């Protein structure tokens, strides 16, 4: 019995260590543009059934309950929190925040399409919209190119990108930002670099104009902040640490019982 308690408590500590890793990653990304926090979900393991519910007793009566001993716990999944992050004013014309559902689409140099909530755009040497990263600039899809002589860029809440040029009082439209939505956005694969990839679980992307079909709108001169609440994460950190300590105490208690049983056997 003591051996089983050791393994059950150890499985709990392993699962809680994963939860601590998730919390630490959330806290590390409190300043990451467009970051969506994650939550660790637990599930119990198999049970050893010593007596099944409804078993017939010697008296002919049926038991109302049984005897089952669980074998511990494990991480069932890590679930992404897709709630809206706070919009922060930057006064930078190429900063665009999504207010509501949807993801920007970007093209990797490999040709793969990725998805992001980070709208800190720049233009490359060819004037094309790119999402900045520490290693490369991925092109916005559909691609939008800003003319060299542009003096101002205006992005509407529906994603229409217009520019003003010298000796011209009219705004000229040069592109249209599209947003992608998924039937199960929590099924997207997180890649790092503020990027997500489509999976079988997420379903195929649906492209829409911002502000239509339940898709969010765009806010120029703003960025979406991380949706991680540091206070909530710190509370979760404390409770997880306490749970880790309780499992550790269960291991110590089980070890002491095993030692006691071994001593009794030697004495008998």
Account of the 3D structure:
The chain has 268 residues and is of the alpha+beta class. It has two domains: 2-54 and 61-82 and 229-267, no CATH class; 87-224, no CATH class. Helices cover 24% and strands 31% of the residues. The chain is built from two helices and 20 strands. The protein has helices at 2-28, 230-267, and strands at 38-44, 47-51, 67-70, 73-80, 87-89, 96-99, 103-107, 113-116, 121-123, 129-131, 138-140, 152-155, 160-164, 172-176, 179-181, 189-192, 195-197, 206-208, 217-220, 222-224. Strands 7, 8, 9, 10, 11, 15 and 18 form a seven-stranded antiparallel β-sheet that branches. Strand 12 (152-155) and strand 13 (160-164) form a beta hairpin. The longest helix has 38 residues, at 230-267.
User: Would you report the number of β strands?
Assistant: 20
Helix share, percent: 10-25%
Q: Mean pLDDT across all residues, rounded?
A: 90
Low-confidence stretches: none
Structural class, please?
alpha+beta
What's the number of domains?
2
Question: Which terms summarize this structure?
Answer:
2 domains; 268 residues; seven-stranded antiparallel sheet; three-stranded antiparallel sheet; alpha+beta
Quick overview of this protein structure:
This protein is an alpha+beta fold and about 270 residues long.
